[in-house]
Amino acid sequence: MDSILDKAYIAENFRKQGHALIDMMADYLAEATSDKEEIQAIPWQSPEEQLSYWQQDFSKPKVSDPLELFKDVMDHSIQVHRKRYLGHQTTPTLPVTVLSAAFTALLNQGMGVYEMGMVGNTLEKVLTEHLAQKLGYSKEASGFITSGGSLGNLTALLAARAVATDIWQSGYENGKQLAVLVSEEAHYCIDRAARIMGLGAAGIIKVPINARFQMRTELLEEYYQQALSEGKQVISVIGCAGSTSTGSYDDLKAIAAFSKKYNLWFHVDGAHGAPAAFSPTYKHLMAGIEEADSVVVDYHKMMMTPSLSTALIFKRGGDAYKTFSQRAQYLWTDQNTEEWYNGGKRSFECTKAMSALNVYTIFRMYGDGIFKENIERLYGLAVSFAEKIKANKSLDLAYEPQCNIVCFRFTATERDLSKINLAIRQQLLEEGRFYIVQTVLNGELYLRVSVMNPLSTEQEFQELLIAVEEKAHLILSAKDVGVDV
Ligand SMILES: Cc1ncc(COP(=O)(O)O)c(C=O)c1O
Question: Which atom of ligand 1 is nearest to the CA of 308?
Fold first, then answer.
């Protein structure tokens, strides 16, 4: 057989390669709980080093065994299943979803229309309606799955605009300056979505935050009246159910009451924290979410699925059809009918991944209980980590964590704290044993930990604090430590 293409489809080769890959991945997972010192969370290399490595690799002779390549990729990648991975809000994917994701790649359903995603489009309805119930909505609520919280938030704001204006049809001609009210701590994708929608900087009204980094809802009235006096039309108020930097939950009840008073679209960005709905212990943090017109929830953050998979839920399922009205006769015959099974009608995307299967597989195998357990474990670990920080006189805890995001900094020095903490984080990164990140709170740099890995234990947190102090003392005692402090 001479054809490269024909050879590439030989099923027996796939079988062998697949078995070998599963073995490799299972070895990696088996090691995930290991305490071995040499196991790194991140094999740090600068972007230039990384680029030069892969440029060279690309010019090498072809590989006959993909495993060689995959091992190389793993050795150069951050490893989210490691117990000392404590960085951004990326989940250590549940092993069974690695299988469902591979299976999804094989099926490669197009999803935009029913025929091209008969199961996938149906699962999206089942899953989003189940999540809606968990959030406390009535049976009228429904939604779909889209690729990421950023796209989910943009789509929700487009729905808010479609309800308030006719811009989708008639454009911005002679229109009012539109605006949204949002916490200063909202994820940058909200700002980006508003700008994509043509609202400009003047259209993003940032409401100040309190000491717990929650929106100061008592200021909503003042900011709203100010916007009106400047001739703006507010189309939405957006609450955070778990802000990115600090994991703070806004007072959603207060935002709901305010939105109701002025008949404004109430959207909740629950990309990170809305899975708290599965925990009777933490659900109260989101009281009022059931009054939101729309909610975004990332399955790929705290619900353990591979990226990307985001539920966008509408309180009145029919609202989802207001966002886009377009003719696509090769896909569906009538835009005006509410056909949940033709995914492209409500989603920004045409072809998209059947990521619903990853979520559905977890539910069918483990039920709601696994999400309850995950949330409670992660939030519980964060509380005990915060206690350890408070007990250490060299460290300062930025706030009492409401969920699994903890910010702190080393303070036992007279020198510039932001610079010292930046240097600590850089040294940790270059060493690679721990992966943590940083954020800026009230203009000061803090170290930031997201407890995403249910396999992490108190020991890792204890060791992290020792490492932070060691780095700090090294930095303070040496002049030349690679980072300018
Ligand atoms: C609160 C919040 N909203 C939205 C996003 C963006 O979500 P995605 O990365 O899925 O686009 C994030 C990402 O961290 C987030 O934390």
Answer: 10
262: its two tokens: 């002025």
- CA R_g for the chain: 24
- The beta strand positions in 116-264, using DSSP E, are 142-146, 177-183, 204-207, 232-240
Structural domains of the chain ordered from first start: 8-42+78-94+377-485 (3.90.1150.10), 109-366 (3.40.640.10)
Q: What residue's CA is closest to ligand 1, atom 5?
A: 149
Quick one: pLDDT at residue 34? 81
CA of 274 to the centre of ligand 1 (A): 12
**460: nearest Cα among 347, 375, 378:** 378
Instruction: Write out residues in the chain with pLDDT < 70, as ranges.
Output: 326-336, 479-485
**For residue 252, how many other CB atoms are within 10 A of its CB?**
25
Residue environment code for 27-48, b if the CB has 16+ CB neighbours within 10 A, otherwise e: eeeeebeeeeeeebbbebeeee
Quote the CA–CA distance of 239 and 257 in Å, as a whole number.
12
| Smallest CA separation from ligand 1 atom 16, residue | 244
pLDDT at 173: 79
Expressed in angstroms and rounded, the spacing between residue 187 Cα and the centre of ligand 1 is 6
Lining residues, ligand 1, CB within 6 Å: 89, 148-150, 187, 189, 242-244, 269, 271-272, 298, 308, 310
CA of 189 to the centre of ligand 1 (A): 7
SS3 44: coil
Q: What is the pLDDT of residue 35?
A: 78
Return d(Cα 435, Cα 264) in angstroms, integer.
41
The helix or strand, by DSSP H or E, that contains position 409, with its residue range, turns out to be strand 405-410
Query: Buried b / exposed e across 64-74, counting CB within 10 Å, b at 16+?
Result: eeeeeebeeee
Which is nearest to 117 in space by CA: 309, 340, 365? 340
